[in-house]
Design a protein that fits this description.
Blueprint (H helix, E strand, L loop, with lengths): L1 H20 L1 E9 L2 E6 L3 E6 L13 E7 L2 E7 H4 L14 E5 L1 H4 L3 E5 L1 E9 L3 E2 L12 E11 L2 E10 L1 H5 L5
Parallel strand pairs: 2-11, 5-7
Antiparallel strand pairs: 1-2, 1-8, 3-6, 4-5, 6-7, 9-10, 10-11
């Protein structure tokens, strides 16, 4: 009996070690006062804010469309889509548009965010998936990434909300 428990413990440690060596690459961005991230491979490019043409009879989170190098691209306000009502104090002109890869969206879609901070690589051991969502029906939050940040000569954990962009955009058909 004790041997089985020891073997189970060793297997759990091996699984954890393997998990810490897997990595993810994400694009970090700001919405309101919080840091978020999406998979790097879901992103085609990041562009500066440009004039958005509003469309009638669309949900409030669809800001409108832009002409991006000759191609019409639908722009989604991610703060509105995620019900984030905090204002980060960023003017419209200083926001960024993350253009998503068409393989995941099936059409030209960009998401408007307050700022794009970096592209980062994290080990899966830095991701807490267990506390990702208080609502078990919400599959948009993949996990919480713990990132070491220096604040006044101290190293603290900064938290980044890692989201799956695909389910957030699945119902957009323009």
């Amino acid at each position: 009996m004790a041997a089985a428990a020891t073997q189970k413990s060793q297997q759990a440690q091996a699984d954890q070690k393997e998990k810490t060596h897997e990595t993810i690459q994400v694009v970090e961005f700001v919405l309101g006062r919080e840091l978020f991230a999406i998979d790097l491979f879901d992103v085609k490019e990041v562009v500066e804010y440009t004039t958005i043409t509003k469309l009638p009879n669309t949900p409030p989170y669809i800001k409108g469309i832009i002409d991006l190098r000759g191609e019409i691209t639908t722009i989604v306000d991610l703060k509105e889509r995620l019900n984030i009502h905090e204002d980060g104090g960023i003017s419209e002109e200083n926001k960024r548009i993350i253009v998503l890869d068409e393989k995941i969206t099936e059409s030209k879609i960009g998401i408007i965010v307050d700022d794009v901070s970096s592209v980062s690589t994290f080990e899966m051991g830095q991701v807490d998936s267990s506390s990702a969502s208080g609502n078990s029906d919400d599959h948009t939050i993949l996990g919480i990434i713990k990132k070491k940040v220096r604040v006044k000569d101290k190293e603290v954990n900064g938290l980044i909300i890692w989201i799956d962009i695909k389910p957030l955009l699945k119902d957009i058909h323009i």
